Amino acid sequence: MWHLTEEQEMIQKTVRDWAAAKLAPQAERFEHEKHFSVELYKEFAALGFPGIRYPEALGGGDGGILDMCIWVKELARVLPGFAISASVACGLGAKMLGYGTEAQKERFLKPTVEGEMIGAFGLTEPNAGSDATNLETRAVRDGDDWVINGAKTFITNGNIADYILVSAKTDPSTKNAISIFIVPKDTPGMTTAPIDKNCWFSSDTALITFDNCRLPADALLGPLHGGLKLLTDNLNEGRVTYAAHCYGIAEGCFDGALEYVHQRTAFGQRIADFQNTQFKLAEMKMKLDLAWTYIMRAAAEVEANPDANVTASICKNYAAQISEEIAREARHLLGGYGCMNEYAVGRLSRDVFVAEVGEGTREINYRVIWKALTRKHT
Ligand SMILES: Cc1cc2nc3c(=O)[nH]c(=O)nc-3n(C[C@H](O)[C@H](O)[C@H](O)COP(=O)(O)OP(=O)(O)OC[C@H]3O[C@@H](n4cnc5c(N)ncnc54)[C@H](O)[C@@H]3O)c2cc1C
After folding, report:
1. pTM (whole model) above 0.90
2. Where are the domains of the chain?
3. Residue 92 alpha carbon to ligand 1 centre in Å
């Protein structure tokens, strides 16, 4: 159980080789130009990985959560920004399309599974992040149409996506009356603008505004007022996959540091020969192995029971925590070179702060764990 299957070893090797050959040589350029390469994503997608979690009937690979975790971590250990945009392109939003009508699946989900389309999911707003039920975006019925007004912020792939799944209040008098709408790119009334951020330079992030954005009736995804269920049904899987992303960054930092300390010398010996270095790297390896073992457990548990929220929250929080710790130590072992773009460790460790923010902040995940702990006492 605690080993990858032959097929999973093959996924890992294929993505590792692809990332080394195609992604690593261009990583610094993408970071410098601050863009997500749609062209390279499509090249990656042609290998079939975006469809790994989807049924064969849709052109997918019928794979498990761990299969997706493997390709996500392999991309993240080289370029976390590219990895996050790639996993969002075919991740949470696309999974929600599984609740759609046959026509919606044919138009949006199938091309996403095939890597032809890129998806985005817009929940966060300028005044509503962790508290998703506080969102201000409204969708109002007008004849057969829906009219959306509001704004979404920090939306990964928002500027380049072929469609955005947008959450909106459909009954302002009820806190949980949220519905999901499929908004194709270039829909009049929707404007996207890039956001200048200090992490994940190789991913796309947008502020999206809706000004009387008119959509046909069939833009509604799933039941009216039923958006929160679509979201929560896929939340735990998203957290486990995101944990794999955090783990990938940590592994990339660890590998970079391990190599560096065997090359660099000081005071007449290799940095690797100082006992402090050995203990640090041993401690980092211990944390990595524990995080990966938990990811394997969580992937199996959430697959068997998508409501396994405590396991998913522990998984995400632990991977995020150790990725920050490992990135910090790895960077330190490189001394001044840890601050230079010449070494991947510097670039990777810059991307680690956001680990604690995505897929529920640290506190939101602790909240999930605490609620389960205290349930029988209330
Ligand atoms: C690069 C990037 C990409 C993103 N991509 C997407 C995307 O594609 N789609 C999308 O919808 N969103 C996206 N997000 C948004 C992300 O999901 C939110 O930033 C996150 O949910 C936190 O919301 P917030 O930033 O509004 O922080 P807030 O919710 O305002 O939180 C601020 C602080 O308060 C703490 N806090 C909040 N509530 C509690 C509580 N109950 N108890 C204790 N502490 C609490 C938080 O933990 C945090 O430390 C992205 C964010 C970033 C940075």
Report:
1. yes
2. 6-113, 119-225, 228-373
3. 16
